[in-house]
Amino acid sequence: MYKIYLYLIIPILCFAANLQSEIERRAVLDIGSGGTKVAIADVDTDNNQIIDMLFEQSFPVPYQASLDKSFDGTFDEETKILGIETFEKIKKIALQYQVQKITAVATSAFRKANNANDFVKKVLQSTNIHIQIISQREEGEIAFNSAVATGNFDPNELIVWDIGTGSMQITVVNENHDFTVYMGEQMGSVAFKSHIIDVIQDKDDDELSPNPISEEELKAADCYARAFARKTYPIIKEKIYPRATIAGIGRLFYHSIR
Questions:
Q1: 116-124 — which CB contacts under 8 Å span 24+ positions?
Q2: What does pLDDT average to in each consecutive run of 10 residues of the chain (258 residues)?
Q3: Domains located in the chain, CATH noted
Q4: pLDDT at residue number 6
Q5: Could you say which of 2, 99, 135, 256 would form a disulfide bridge with 94 (CB–CB 3.0 to 4.6 Å)?
Q6: What pLDDT is recorded for position 10?
């Protein structure tokens, strides 16, 4: 029997510990394909454990949706303006909380966008927030470490399934005590929804939702998802069967379980 645990955001990134234990106030920005999730916490720098979570909020910015409508693979002006305004709001919040360190990581949509680097530079100029665009493997590793840091899990019996707007990752620890990350760049919630609308239903790209969905369309969508699942690495399949704990990360899990 599997337990599925819920995480709304990546709570903290782990950094090298100082020689002497201190409490540092940190802000972490998880810039996903559908918006930016922010967490501010007091952290014990000796063991990188959260002492007190002070602030958590999500700011919607449709980065992936902008790309889906783009003819040249770029964020449009409206999305960039909203993005800059959002980072300016976050910067003000960080100042109000007297944050000592801000870490910002961007994921799938920023990996794909042809103008992501230019946008990141504009954010730095406007807010002094440095955004790091991470690889999908790094995204999976961060999700796994976040789950371990947040919950009482045995890393060797843990499977972390992170579904974002633009991509998804399934991460485990392998026999070499390293990470094995199954990466589905085209299996994020928006990408999967778009496949249902465009391919299965053969509807216009401007459709916001595939609902209502017929029984036949449901079966086709299920087959598409299962085809991706079959490609999962053997070590992940092996860990599922005995007594694995599956930690689900992402807004999709949040709304589905509610």
A1: 116/75, 119/75, 119/80, 119/83, 122/80, 122/84, 123/83, 123/84, 123/87
A2: 41 43 89 91 82 92 91 97 98 98 93 97 98 92 84 88 86 93 83 88 82 94 91 89 80 49
A3: 23-134 (3.30.420.40), 137-253 (3.30.420.150)
A4: 38
A5: 99
A6: 39
Q: How far is CA 227 from each of CA 71, 187, 211, rounded to the nearest angstrom?
A: 29, 11, 22
C-alpha atoms less than 13 angstroms from C-alpha of 33 in its C-beta half-sphere: 30
Handedness of CA 256, 60, 130, 133 (dihedral sign): positive
Residue 95 tokens, joined? 């100042």
Task: Please answer whether residues 123 and 117 qualify as being in contact, where contact means their C-beta atoms are separated by less than 8 angstroms.
Answer: no
- Closest listed residue to residue 56, CA positions, set 4, 12, 110: 12
Closest CA to 247 of 174, 165, 179, 145: 145
Q: Helix, strand, or coil here: 64?
A: helix
Secondary-structure breakdown of the chain: helix, strand, coil percentages, each rounded to the nearest 5: 40, 25, 35
Helix pair 116-127, 77-96: axis angle to 10 deg: 40
Phi-psi region of 48 (alpha: psi -120 to 50; beta: other; left: phi over 0): left
The confidence score (pLDDT) of residue 205 equals 67
Q: What is the pLDDT of residue 251?
A: 61
CA distance 144 to 10: 10
pTM: 0.76
Alpha helices, DSSP H, located in the chain: 63-69, 77-96, 108-112, 116-127, 136-150, 189-195, 215-229, 234-240, 251-257
Distance (Å, whole) CA 206 – CA 208: 6
